């Protein structure tokens, strides 16, 4: 069993003074304030370093240490052709390997050596690939829009951020849609092939006009609306179906939003622009073809899977559908003997929608910047499987993110025996209005703090909620308004409360029977300010010894002496008591980890009732 697995099955090993330090998963290097910004970013997307040998349990390389030159450059695998401009952006900070045309087996064998993988639509990023990359792969960049070739659920479970490049190829795809529409209506491809074969067939290739015809746009997003705009210019009557599109956007372009049924029933031409999802899979099928006008013409530059291709062949054979123009197919490339591709009334292109010089240049830069940002730990505006946190919010929340993680980390180390944690309550006290800030990031970091010390799972903003759910951890949140506080600081304090658990340190149990820790940020540094019923004030850096004793003179000196004899530097010390002469606790921040003997000496002081050593 690996050391981190051992910690998973015995959560309490982590707080034991005798537990090996190397065996405990650690995320960050000791913090320094100037790196606060970097640290928050790293916490969002950090992943454990891949380094692990039989003798050395998996350890995490800090990506936030003070010497940038010591940090390894991230490695990026580019699996499909990417424009030079994008590669140049990536090469500025990463080792980039372009391995075009890899087989699925090649990809599986390689992926674990990379921090990021960039693909287009031709590479399937399956659960297997993401599993193979687990431990190192942090980002999948899709150089384009459609992410149906990436297993998003598996990526989320692995804490792997998926980013795409959603805007740079919109116009190219729309232009290709219009090109297919016009060339299909005038039989350009068929006539071209015939003429090249020596046939001059003017009567055979009489086309149909576009002006005045009804075009139904199915999916009124970026590409769909651009197609609509261009079709209006061709004099077409444009209707659209999109359950999620705002009517005013359609109206502004001069398109009318209608139901699916109405769209397909009224259209002379149907242009498909919806993504492939479980809902849209084969939404164009025998039943829907039946409801269309006889002689309808269909264009698809979205995804092949939205059409039942066998049903389309039947509809073409029967004449229900007069023509189809297809850029995309359920299986790409389609089989050589595909009836659909070979059908004389079908015009095909090999997924060329995004393939213009301009679009590929734009996509390459868009995805390179998104991947670079994600590897730096920034949240990308094009994150597909994570919430978006704007940079200014991120920077303001930086010390609170660190505080949230440390409170979670301390709380889990205080849990005793086999009592698993189920209920976690996080209370945010703030002078700001309830809608003023988003707590997802803080909740994710509390989860990270609770889960990571006791498991081999690494947690980040992408997978925090999923991980909590998987582990049966119910995290509830409460906002408490702090009327007399300053709204300048986003938060006054964060409380982490673990209910229905036993503690190995009775002093951390509040009157209500829960483990309670409260912290706040002072001068940009997280401080622990409440432990159970006791008020303390200790900076959350290094390690912490909590000691419960009978309140009496000389205790600080005794403990300080024992630590001093072993050269353990005390960074902070704070005493909190309920009543004079009754119980009190000492919170002692230490730079070094005291050895077992030193800790036992502290425990042997007669007035000391209990103590615990905690890693921050
Ligand atoms: N052929 C190509 O090379 C190429 C190039 C670019 C985009 N695409 C594909 O085109 C599609 C659209 O791209 P986009 O950039 O416009 O995406 P988009 O997200 O901007 O637009 C998709 C629209 O589809 C709508 N939609 C979702 N479910 C729907 C449903 N059941 N019925 C009707 N509408 C629905 C959404 O509300 C959205 O407005 C994607 O599948 C993308 O992968 C293909
Ligand atoms: O979804 C997309 O962006 C398009 O289908 C383009 O795919 P490609 O990058 O493989 O050309």
UniProtKB/TrEMBL annotation:
Residues 13-26 have a biased composition (Low complexity). It is found in: Plastid, Chloroplast. Transmembrane segments: none annotated. Its EC number is 1.1.1.95. Residues 1-26 are annotated as: Disordered. CDD domains: ACT_3PGDH-xct, PGDH_4. Its main location: plastid. GO terms for cellular component: chloroplast stroma. The keyword Plastid applies. It is an enzyme of class 1 (oxidoreductase). One of its GO terms (biological process) is L-serine biosynthetic process. It catalyses: (2R)-3-phosphoglycerate + NAD(+) = 3-phosphooxypyruvate + NADH + H(+). One of its GO terms (molecular function) is phosphoglycerate dehydrogenase activity. Pathway: Amino-acid biosynthesis; L-serine biosynthesis; L-serine from 3-phospho-D-glycerate: step 1/3. Residues 544-616 form the ACT domain. Keywords: Amino-acid biosynthesis, Chloroplast, NAD, Oxidoreductase, Plastid, Serine biosynthesis, Transit peptide. The keyword Phosphoprotein does not apply. Pfam families: 2-Hacid_dh, 2-Hacid_dh_C, ACT, PGDH_inter. Belongs to the D-isomer specific 2-hydroxyacid dehydrogenase family. This is D-3-phosphoglycerate dehydrogenase. The lineage of its organism: Eukaryota, Viridiplantae, Streptophyta, Embryophyta, Tracheophyta.
């Amino acid at each position: 069993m690996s050391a981190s697995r051992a910690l998973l099955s015995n959560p309490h090993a982590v707080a034991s003074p005798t537990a090996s330090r190397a065996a405990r998963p650690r995320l960050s290097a000791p913090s320094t304030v100037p790196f606060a910004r970097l640290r928050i970013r790293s916490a969002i997307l950090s992943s454990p370093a891949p380094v692990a040998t039989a003798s050395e349990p998996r350890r995490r390389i800090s990506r936030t240490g003070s010497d940038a030159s010591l940090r390894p450059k991230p490695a990026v695998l580019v699996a499909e052709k990417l424009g030079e401009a994008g590669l140049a952006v990536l090469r500025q900070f990463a080792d980039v390997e372009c391995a075009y045309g890899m087989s699925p087996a090649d990809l599986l064998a390689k992926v674990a050596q990379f921090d990021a993988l960039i693909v287009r639509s031709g590479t399937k990023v399956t659960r297997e690939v993401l599993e193979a990359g687990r431990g190192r792969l942090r980002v999948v960049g899709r150089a384009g829009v459609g992410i149906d070739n990436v297993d998003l659920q598996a990526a989320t479970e692995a804490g792997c951020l998926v980013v795409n490049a959603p805007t740079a190829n919109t116009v190219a795809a729309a232009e290709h849609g219009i090109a297919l529409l016009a060339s299909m209506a005038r039989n350009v491809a068929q006539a071209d092939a015939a003429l090249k074969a020596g046939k001059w067939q003017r009567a055979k290739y009489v086309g149909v006009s576009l002006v005045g015809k009804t075009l139904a746009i199915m999916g009124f997003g970026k590409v769909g609306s651009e197609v609509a705009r261009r079709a209006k210019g061709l004099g077409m009557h444009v209707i659209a179906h999109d359950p999620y599109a705002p009517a005013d956007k359609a109206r502004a372009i001069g398109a009318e939003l209608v139901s699916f049924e109405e769209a397909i029933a009224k259209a002379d031409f149907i242009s498909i622009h919806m993504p492939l999802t479980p809902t849209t899979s084969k939404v164009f099928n025998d039943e829907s073809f039946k409801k269309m006008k006889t002689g309808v013409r269909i264009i698809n530059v979205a995804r092949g899977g939205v059409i039942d291709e066998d049903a389309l062949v039947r509809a073409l054979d029967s004449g229900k559908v007069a023509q189809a123009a297809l850029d995309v197919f359920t299986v790409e490339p389609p089989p050589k003997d595909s009836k659909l591709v070979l059908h004389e009334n079908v015009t095909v292109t090999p997924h060329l929608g995004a393939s213009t010089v301009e679009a590929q240049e734009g996509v390459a830069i868009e995805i390179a910047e998104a991947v670079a940002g994600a590897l730096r730990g920034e949240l990308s505006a094009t994150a597909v499987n994570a919430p978006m946190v704007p940079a200014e919010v991120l920077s303001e929340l930086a010390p609170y993110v660190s505080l949230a993680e440390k409170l979670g980390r301390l709380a889990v180390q205080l849990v005793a025996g086999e009592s698993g944690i189920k209920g976690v309550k996080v209370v945010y006290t703030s002078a700001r209005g309830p809608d003023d800030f988003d707590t997802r990031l803080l909740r994710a970091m509390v989860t990270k703090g609770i889960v990571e010390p006791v498991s081999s799972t690494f947690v980040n903003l992408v997978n925090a909620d999923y991980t909590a759910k998987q582990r049966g951890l119910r995290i509830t949140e409460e906002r408490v308004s702090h009327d007399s506080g300053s709204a300048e600081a986003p938060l006054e304090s964060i409380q982490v409360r673990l209910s229905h658990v036993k503690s190995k340190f009775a002093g951390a149990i509040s009157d209500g029977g829960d483990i309670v820790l409260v912290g706040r940020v002072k001068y940009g540094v997280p401080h622990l300010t409440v432990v159970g019923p006791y008020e303390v004030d200790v900076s959350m850096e290094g390690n912490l010894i909590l000691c419960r004793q009978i309140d009496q003179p000389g205790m600080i000196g005794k403990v300080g002496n024992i630590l001093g004899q072993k050269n353990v530097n005390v960074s902070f010390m704070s005493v909190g008591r309920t009543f004079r002469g009754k119980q009190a606790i000492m919170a002692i921040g230490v730079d070094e980890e005291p050895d077992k003997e030193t800790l036992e000496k502290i425990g042997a002081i007669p007035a000391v009732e209990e103590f615990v050593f905690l890693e921050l």
